[in-house]
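The following record pairs a protein chain with its ligand, NDP.
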Amino acid sequence: MPVKQIQNYIGGQLVDPQSGNWLPNFEPATGEIYSEVPDSNAQDITHAVDAAQSAMAAWSQCGIDQRAEILHRVADLIDQNREELVAIESRDNGKTETLARMIDIPRCSKNIRFFANLAMGLASESHSMPDAINYTLRRPLGIVTCISPWNLPLYLFTWKIAPALAAGNCVIGKPSEVTPMSAHRLSELCIEAGLPEGVLNIVHGSGAVTGDALLNEPRISAVSFTGSTQTGKHIASVVSPQFKKLSLELGGKNPNLIFADCNYEAMMETTLRSSFANQGQICLCGSRILIERSLYPKFRDEFVQRAQQVKVGDPQDTDSILGAVVSQPHYDKILKCIELAKNEGGKILCGGGPARVDGRCANGWFIQPTVIEGLPNDCQTNQQEIFGPVVTLQPFDTDDEALQLANDTAYGLSATIWTQDVSRANTMADRLNCGVVWVNCWLIRDLRTPFGGYKQSGVGREGGLEAMRFFTETKNVCIKY
Ligand code: NDP
C-alpha cells in the first residue's frame, strides 16, 4: 500500500516541497514506515517567509478581537476533531491513545484559547510624570519561527504558535520531522477555520536542513525553540550574532526529593507517573529520585514492585500504561544508557531492556520501566538526560545533602518535593536551582505561570505574560504636557 505523503502549509495552501523529496516517517509501535514528510530546504523557507511577509500588515494591524475570533475557531475545530487527533498523535509518537486523549490533545485547544483570551486582556503600562506622560506600546515582532520537539508534538507546537499569533506575528512553524502528522492535520484545520493565508506556515523537514535554513533567514526576527540542550547550543551560536530574539526551552535531569514525613500513597502513585509517563519522554519527568534514608528500603521495594506491574503495550489498547518510545535511534540511545549505567556499577532493580509486545507491535520500540540504584550523583547516568523510562534511586541523610544532590547537575528545569513540613518545603523550594518546583504534586500546570529552566535547561520563560512579552517588542512614548 502506498504511504501517505503530507505537505507543507504555505500561504494558506498545502504544497509539495520544492526539492520533490520526502523523508520516511515511522510508526514507533510497529517500526514500519507509514507516511512521508517533505524534505524542505531553504527555497521552501523563502517561499514561507514571502507568504508571511505578504500577510503581516493585515494580521498585525487587525483588531485583537478579530485575531482572537479566528484563533477560537481553530481551537473549536481541534475539539471537534479530538478523537482523530488522538489517533494521529498516538500512531505518530508511540504514546498511548489514553495519554493523548487525557493530556496532549485537550491541551492544544486550551493553549490556543488561553493566548487568544490573554491577548484580549493585555493592558499597556503608563508612567505619569509632573510634566509628561509615558505609555508603553507592545508591538508584534514581525515574522517569527517556532521549532518544536517530538515528545508532546501538537501540545508544544500550539504552546508556541498560539502566543506568537495572538500577539500579531506571522509564524513559520517547524515541527519535528519525527512526529509531523498532527501539525499537518492542524494545517488542514487552519484552512477550514479561515486563518488568513500566510499568517501561519508549517514547513516540515529535518533540523539540519529545514531548521538551519530558518535560523539563517534574515527576515525572521525571533526563534522560539524547545528541544535538546545540544541543539539549543547550536541554535544560540547561529542566532545570537544575528541579534534575533531567542527563547530556549531545553533538557532536564529533574530530582524528586522524597522525605520520610510525606503522604506516602500520594507520593508513590505520583512518583510512578512522574518517572514513566509518556515513556519518560517529558522534559519534566523526575529521573533522579532522592529518598530520605529511613524511608529508602520501603520505598525501593514497593516502587520496584509497582514499576514491574506497569503494562507496556500497544498504544491503541486502553489497558496499556506505556507505549513505544519515539524512534529506533532513540530506542538504541536509551538501551545504551542502561548499558552505561551497568558499566558504571549501577544495580538494575527492574526492567533494563526491551519490552516484548506481541501481535502487530512485535517489531515496535518498547522499553521496560527501569529502576537503578547504587550510582553516585556525579556519574554520567545521573548527569546526562536519558529521556526514557529509566530512573535512579539515591538515599540521603539530611536536608542539606538532599539539596546538594538535587542541585548538583548542569540542568535546572524542575524539581518535586514530597514532605508534610511546610517550612521545609518552602526552604527547599527557595534553595533549589530550577525554574519549576512542585510540592506534593507533579505536572499541575496553570498556563498563566512562568515556565522554563535555569542553567543548561534554557534561556527565558514561556507561559502567560512571559510568552506575550517574548513575542512583542516594547516601545515607550513620552508626551510632554
Ligand atoms: P532536538 O533538539 O533533537 O529537536 C528539537 C527540534 O529542533 C526538532 O524540530 C528538530 O528537528 C529541530 N532541530 C534539530 N536540529 C536543528 C538545527 N540544527 N536547527 C534548527 N532546528 C533543529 O530535540 P528532540 O526533538 O529530541 O526533543 C527532546 C528534547 O527536548 C529533550 O532534551 C527534552 O528535554 C527537550 N524538551 C524540553 C522541554 C522544555 O520545555 N524545556 C519540553 C519538551 C522537550 P528534527 O527533529 O526534524 O531534526
